[in-house]
Amino acid sequence: MARKTQKDAEKTRTKILASALSLFAKKGYEHTTFADVAARLDMTKGAVYWHFESKEALLMALVDEMLEKFQRQIGDMMPQSDLSFPAVADMMVKHAIRLLEDAKGTAFFLLMHEQVQWASDSMAKVREDLLTNERFGPWHAFHAAVANDVAAGRARADVSAERVAHTCVAIWDGLVHARIAKFMTCDLKETMEHAFAGVWNAIKAG
Predict the structure, then answer these.
(1) How many whole angstroms from its chain centre is CA 51?
(2) 166: exposed, middle or buried (C-beta count within 10 Å: 0-12, 13-18, 19+)?
(3) C-alpha angle 87/66/59, rounded to 5°?
(4) Quick count: other Cβ atoms within 10 Å of Cβ 75?
(5) Which regions of the chain are under pLDDT 50?
(6) How far out from the chain centre does Cα 145 lie?
(7) Helices (H), the chain
(8) Rounded to 5 degrees, what are φ and ψ at 204?
(9) Is 180 left (phi over 0), alpha (psi -120 to 50) or beta?
(10) How far apart are CA 43 and CA 48, in angstroms?
(11) Could you give the CA distance from residue 168 to residue 165 in angstroms, rounded to a whole number?
């Protein structure tokens, strides 16, 4: 019986997270209340509080859920042999295309970019967790790949893996956001491949 109760609780928690994502993306994090989340599921506000002690805790749980999902997707596509910049760039292009085809993923992406006031003091912990989180992996993958390329002589010895990783994540993030927000109408795959090819041409040896 206890096993069934735990299973039911997990189902309810999943429904709450889905409801919160939809409302956060539509109304904004600051303008969404626990009552809104509960009403969308025909639940009481107290029932939502039983699963999440605060709205910040709910957002952080949502962030954790989505980062774990993205980490699994990236893990499935990550090159298994010695990492190289071209291989990681190709993997991140494929991840971008997969994200565009995932309604939940695009909603979360827009939430993080457009519906959360990151300058707010209440967002300090969430912001820090996002910036330092190693599970998602893109920054770390690019960094490791460039470091490998430098060590193998495929990239110039004076190349900074840290700077290249920051640049590539900014390229990926900016292009995906522009495409999801329908600001950019050009082909995402072609544009991103061209951008990463430019980075690789700038850092490769010879």
Answers:
(1) 24
(2) middle
(3) 145
(4) 10
(5) 1-2
(6) 20
(7) 2-27, 34-40, 45-51, 55-77, 85-100, 103-114, 124-132, 138-151, 161-180, 188-203
(8) -70, 150
(9) alpha
(10) 8
(11) 5
Classified as helix, coil or strand, 8 is helix
| pTM summary value | 0.76
Closest CA to 38 of 56, 12, 60, 64: 12
Residue 41 half-sphere exposure toward CB, CA atoms < 13 A: 23
Tokens at residue 120, please?
């707010």
pLDDT of amino acid 174:
92
**Per-residue tokens: 60:** 């952080």
Total Cβ atoms within 10 A of residue 34:
20
